[in-house]
């Protein structure tokens, strides 16, 4: 076995990194870089040598090439996941091999580097990996996701796992189900917790400003650019960039975002060179991204880049057993310790309600009820629940309609009512419906509304 070791410093005093690559020059480059960072590298040239090294000693990080003489880097990733679950492993892929990188992240890799290995990116990856938390015990922060239903227990367990990775995450779920809260918890539990968490509502940025908002601009790049300015990518350096309502990105911006994610580099508007960025991307939307891909409004390659790992936030109607603890938590938040309480009948009424707006709607209902109720006890009449005739409510009245026809009819009705209230002003109607103007225009065309 030809396991080589760097002997520059006493090993007992250093964090140890296992470097697996069959190319001697790559091993030497990484070994030298790690040594200058005060780390000790142990090098292996094959899967067998790597497993022998793992059996013989402990490491704080593993870097492995994807192609080895006696196997694949994915074999190493899976082996470490099964036998050394607390050891972060990153893969080194051939340039432009996006499929390999995605496969490695799904297999449990912490992050990836593309060949030729950029030393700045290597150092950033190592610093992030060595800041990973040692334990996976829950803390009070994670309890912010209130509820003991099986689905919420699964969500909290998934957040613990995702926090130890650098893989892009796609959080799906209906409006008000807690997608941003989940993203913040993943960031807070990750190695990037000391860095910034930058949330961006993709549907709220005018299309002509998107590139400069995301990537920044140089002085003089356009009229009004009187100084250099960083964008969201630079602002999130060392931390997490949260792209909310990512389905609302126009196709032209999707192309630029895809390149930034793949190359981990961005170019400011008006600049001729790219600069590296060190951040993690989490995205979310209440829309069905796969359907958007099939409709041609969302790029398939970007979808697979963002949807490496999916975290689904369950709607409130799927975890009705969490209603009572949620009520206590939200009332404490709204009113403090001396908050009113809900009668058993009021709790029952909430458990029979479908909550199309999920936890956000529950909070709104409780805030209204506590403001209007006469005493310290909230009764069902104080809740003023909406009639159960919308999406997610009682579907018995739809007769022989298919589900698609029924949903289209409800959507058409809601749009027409909004247009009537705004006297035909589409921009105002979109705001009233809580969607972007571009989304409303697409819906108008799909439903044939003039």
In DSSP terms (H or I, runs of 4 or more residues), the helix count works out at 19
CATH architecture level-2 label of the largest domain: 3-Layer(aba) Sandwich
- Tally the beta strands: 17
Q: Give the name of the CATH superfamily of the largest domain.
A: P-loop containing nucleotide triphosphate hydrolases
Low-confidence stretches: 1-13, 134-140, 390-401
Write down the overall geometry. Answer: globular
Q: Which CATH first-tier class of the largest domain would you pick? A: Alpha Beta
> Approximately how much helix is present in the residues?
40-55%
The name CATH uses for the topology of the largest domain is: Rossmann fold
The main pleated sheet reads as:
6 strands, mixed
Please state roughly what percent of the residues sit in beta strands, choosing from under 5%, 5-15%, 15-25%, 25-35%, 35-45% or over 45%: 5-15%
**Spatial ordering of strands, largest sheet:** 1-3-2-4-7-8
User: What is the terminal separation in angstroms?
Assistant: 74 Å
Overall pLDDT: 83
* Domain unit count: 4
In terms of quaternary structure, what is this?
Answer: single chain
């Amino acid at each position: 076995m030809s396991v080589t070791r760097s002997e520059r410093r006493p090993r007992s005093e250093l964090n140890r990194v296992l470097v697996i690559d069959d190319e001697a020059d790559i091993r030497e480059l990484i070994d030298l870089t790690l040594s200058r960072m005060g780390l000790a590298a142990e090098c292996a040239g094959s899967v067998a040598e790597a497993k022998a090294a793992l059996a013989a000693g402990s490491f704080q990080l593993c870097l492995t090439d994807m192609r080895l003489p006696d196997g694949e880097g994915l074999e190493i990733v899976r082996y470490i996941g099964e036998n050394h679950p607390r050891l972060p492993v990153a893969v080194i892929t051939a340039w432009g091999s996006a499929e390999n990188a995605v496969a490695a992240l799904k297999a449990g890799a912490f992050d990836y580097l593309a060949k030729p290995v950029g030393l700045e990116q290597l150092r950033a990856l190592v610093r992030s990996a060595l800041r990973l938390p040692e334990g996976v015990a829950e803390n009070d922060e994670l309890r912010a996701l209130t509820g003991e239903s099986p689905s919420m227990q699964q969500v909290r367990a998934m957040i613990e796992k995702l926090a130890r990775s650098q893989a892009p995450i796609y959080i799906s779920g209906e409006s008000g189900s807690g997608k941003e809260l989940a993203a913040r918890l993943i960031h807070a539990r990750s190695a990037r917790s000391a860095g910034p968490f930058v949330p961006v509502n993709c549907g709220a940025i005018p299309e002509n400003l998107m590139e400069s908002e995301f990537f920044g601009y140089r002085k003089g790049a356009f009229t009004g650019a009187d100084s250099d300015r960083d964008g969201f990518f630079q602002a999130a350096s060392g931390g997490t960039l949260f792209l909310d309502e990512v389905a609302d990105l126009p196709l032209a911006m999707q192309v630029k975002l895809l390149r930034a994610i793949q190359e981990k580099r961005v170019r400011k508007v008006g600049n001729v060179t790219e600069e590296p960025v060190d951040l993690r991307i989490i995205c979310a939307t209440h829309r069905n991204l796969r359907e958007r891909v099939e409709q041609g409004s969302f790029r398939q390659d970007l979808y697979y880049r963002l949807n490496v790992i999916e975290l689904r936030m369950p709607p409130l109607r799927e975890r009705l057993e969490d209603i009572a603890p949620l009520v206590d938590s939200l009332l404490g938040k709204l009113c403090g310790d001396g908050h009113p309480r809900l009668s058993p009948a009021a709790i029952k009424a909430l458990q029979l309600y479908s909550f199309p707006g999920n936890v956000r709607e529950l909070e709104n209902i409780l805030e209204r009820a506590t403001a209007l109720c006469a005493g310290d006890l909230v009764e069902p009449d104080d809740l003023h629940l909406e009639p159960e005739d919308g999406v997610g409510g009682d579907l018995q009245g739809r007769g022989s309609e298919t589900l698609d026809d029924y949903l289209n009819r409800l959507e058409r009705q809601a749009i027409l009512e909004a247009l009537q209230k705004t006297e035909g002003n589409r921009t105002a109607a979109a705001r009233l419906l809580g969607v972007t103007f571009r989304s409303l225009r697409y819906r108008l065309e799909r439903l044939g509304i003039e």
